[in-house]
Design a protein that fits this description.
Helix content: under 10%
Strand order of the largest sheet: 14-15-16-17-21
Distance between the termini: 39 Å
CATH class: Mainly Beta
Radius of gyration: 19 Å
Number of domains: 1
Strand content: 35-45%
Shape: globular
Number of helices: 0
CATH superfamily: YVTN repeat-like/Quinoprotein amine dehydrogenase
Low-confidence stretches: 1-27
Mean pLDDT: 92
């Protein structure tokens, strides 16, 4: 799962994405950012003015900046004035190789690591508490672009859930007390065609109505499970027939039912939130699925890449049964429109207003009419370079961070316009968070808060 590249280019894998919480709940107030990509995995936080430009050296519009130990691609999540981040620290200097390249070899590092959870004051960056969830030698290796803490934590304002793959799932209260932990065994999310290419786990947990949802697609095991957030007790577990994936599930609350929507190669689909029973399914995606499903305009948008196909699907939320497309078809009764080649390898699509913004791993940005699939424009962000962090939006602006650390601010709408390019002076692989008009951007070494002053 190279985060962005792969055909054996597969370069990156994993990563980031995926962590979501409270999907389906009404938290689109611009204040709480409870999971990967914020409320309902939308990546949107309106109602507040957000910055166009900043300077990490001046420091223009930089509220605070702190150094974080270890290596992690997990995003910060926010509830009220509290922010939560995770990391994994090792004995050796952690190599992080970004850019466009094709190596699939994992990092050879058998040093003892510590997996940590931090709670920070979002206004000052002050650490309120830190907890070590686990200590030991990692059970699986990581890709040079990945980390041992790829999954974003989730919070519902009462609990914080952090997922470290083979090292376990941990639930804390808001004051840092460990409530429970769960060991799912070995979750080896390696490239299924070359099992020695271990790239680490990246799917994040989702919290909805007191239930934690986890998608665990790995070699020799694939399942979707629901756990009681108060006790960690398993409510149901549904087996999946799929290869390793790195996508976070999305929860959608509909008029008739609540469903959990997942990405996959052999099996994308929707599951009943209460029972785990399958509602609909589709096969025929890219064989290294990373992007998280996004709901808008009465449809769910799913894309993936690598292998024969790199599709984008716009699927009706009321779909049932097997809705897979017939050969050479781009639509049917359930799929409103699709693109056979053009989906993103690493990044979750951003749907803001009537437009779907699909950024590929090499910086190629395509804007579609989200309702019809019509291409509005195609443009290149900066020079040809790697992108792994998913885009976010607020205040009529789109924010895309390159792996080399340039944050592109794009005007939302049908006309392509770059408002600013802001160098972070550090590698940037984690998806930003937004709260009350402030951007929270995690780089390789730092976490900083950015807003108009």
């Amino acid at each position: 799962m190279l985060r962005n590249s792969s055909r054996i280019l597969l370069s990156t894998v994993i990563l980031f994405g995926t962590l979501i919480v409270l999907q389906g709940q009404n938290t689109t107030d611009g204040e709480n950012w409870p999971s990967f990509r914020g409320p309902n995995a939308s990546g949107i936080a309106d109602r507040y003015a957000t910055p166009v430009s900043w300077d990490v050296d001046t420091p223009k519009n930089i509220n605070w900046k702190i150094k974080l130990p270890g290596l992690a691609h997990s995003s910060p999540v926010i509830w009220g004035d509290r922010m939560f981040v995770t990391t994994a620290t090792g004995e050796a200097d952690a190599e992080l190789k970004v850019g466009l390249y094709g190596s699939i070899e994992p990092v050879d590092d058998d040093s003892v690591h510590e997996w940590k959870v931090y709670c920070l004051d979002k206004k000052t960056g002050k650490i309120m508490w830190e907890k070590t969830a686990h200590k030991g030698v990692p059970k699986v290796k990581r890709h040079p672009k990945a980390t041992h803490a790829n999954s974003t934590p989730s919070t519902d304002g009462k609990y914080v859930v952090a997922f470290f793959g083979s090292e376990g799932l941990y639930c804390y209260n808001m004051d840092g007390k460990l409530i429970w932990k769960k060991d799912f065994g070995l979750l080896d999310a390696a490239f299924f065609m070359v099992p020695s290419a271990q790239w680490e786990f990246a799917s994040s947990p989702v919290i909805h109505q007191g239930v934690v949802i986890v998608q665990c697609d790995a070699l020799n095991t694939a399942f979707l499970a629901a756990l009681d957030i108060k006790t960690g007790k398993e409510i149901w577990r549904t087996a999946r027939e799929d290869v390793p994936t790195w996508s976070t599930p999305t929860v959608h609350v509909g008029e008739k039912q609540t469903q959990i929507i997942v990405n996959g190669f052999k099996h994308m689909g929707g599951y009943d939130f209460k029972t785990g029973k399958e509602i609909w399914e589709i096969s025929g995606g890219g064989d290294i699925p990373v992007p998280t499903p996004v709901v808008a305009h009465g449809m769910v948008f799913i894309n993936s890449a690598h292998g024969r196909l790199s599709p984008i699907y716009a699927i009706k939320l009321e779909s049932e049964g097997d809705i897979s497309l017939k050969e050479d078809n781009t639509s049917n009764d359930s799929i409103v429109w699709s693109v056979r080649r053009g989906g993103s390898y690493m990044l979750t699509p951003l749907i803001y207003g009537d437009f779907l913004y699909n950024l590929q791993w090499n910086g190629a940005l395509t804007c579609y009419n989200a309702k019809t699939g019509e291409v509005v424009y195609k443009e290149q962000l900066g020079k040809m370079t790697g992108f792994s962090a998913s885009g976010v939006a607020a205040d009529g602006k789109l924010y895309f961070a390159s792996e080399e650390g340039d944050v592109f601010v794009i005007k939302a709408g049908p006309e392509f316009e770059v408002l600013a390019t802001n160098p972070m002076k550090d590698k940037c692989m984690a998806t930003p968070a937004i709260s009350e008009g402030t951007l929270y951007i995690r780089t390789h070494h730092h976490l900083m808060a950015i807003s108009e002053k």
